[in-house]
Design brief:
The protein is mostly beta strands. The protein is about 0% helix and about 35% strand. It has a domain of about 50 residues. Keywords: Cell cycle, Cell division, Mitosis, Repeat, WD repeat.
Length: about 90
């Protein structure tokens, strides 16, 4: 599916149109056991450096899209968990 988007949507004053494609299938699938099912929680955070943080239960994990690596950032004890917000610094 091709989509036309006005560059105005991206803060440009240029009236040229940009064309990009929307994938029809997923490039990657995130397995997310222990993802808390609550709409109001902010359990995913993505940064422009292509790092994704995800809270699964009591643990926050990082996934680096550049080298496809994962690491555990922090785990909280049961008394303070589960994690209900991910927010990475700039």
């Amino acid at each position: 599916m091709d989509t036309l988007v006005s560059s105005e949507n991206f803060g440009s004053t240029d009236s040229n149109m940009m064309r990009f494609s929307i994938l029809q299938s997923s490039e990657r699938t995130l397995g997310a056991p222990d993802l808390v099912d609550d709409f109001d929680l902010n359990l995913l955070e993505w940064r422009s450096s292509n790092v994704l943080a995800i809270a699964l239960g009591n643990t926050v994990y990082l996934w680096d899209a550049l080298d496809n690596s994962t690491s555990e950032l922090v785990t909280v004890d049961d008394e303070n968990g589960p994690v209900n917000k991910c927010e990475l610094g700039s």
